[in-house]
Every structure is written in structure tokens, then in C-alpha cells.
Amino acid sequence: MKSKKHRESPEFETIQAAxxxxxxxxxxxxxxxxxxxxxxxxREYKDxxxxxxxxxxxxxxxxxETKLITKILDFKIQL
Length: 79
Prior knowledge:
By secondary structure, this protein is an alpha+beta fold. The chain contains 3 helices and 2 strands, in the order H-H-E-E-H. The longest helix has 18 residues, at about 25-40.
């Protein structure tokens, strides 16, 4: 069984800065979600010998990153 490394979630101040449009904060939030994005963007690929390989679909990965950035910037915090 694979062990999953526990990752610290971004701090509230980082999320708030990302919502306000800070590029560095957005990159921190993106880096937190990178393992999930990579795992969801795997595509099955058969080589010329019929062996199956799994590769990252870069187009889908970029679309997911763009969608995440859009949702971060549209998010409203209600206290």
C-alpha cells in the first residue's frame, strides 16, 4: 500500500491573498493542489508494442489549473 505524505494546507492569509489576486499566493495554492491535478490528468497510452503506459495529459492539466485560478479569483469569503 502506498503511503501518502501529509501536506499542510495553505494558511488563511495565503488563501485570502490569492483571492485578492496576489500571484505568489495563487502559486502556493496551485502547488498544494498539484498532486491531485496530476493524478486526475493521467491518460492511457499504448505504444507500438501494445504495452500500456500512463502519461499526463498536459492540455487537461493546464485547463484544470486555469479553472482553479478562475475559481480562486471568483471566490468570496463571508465572515
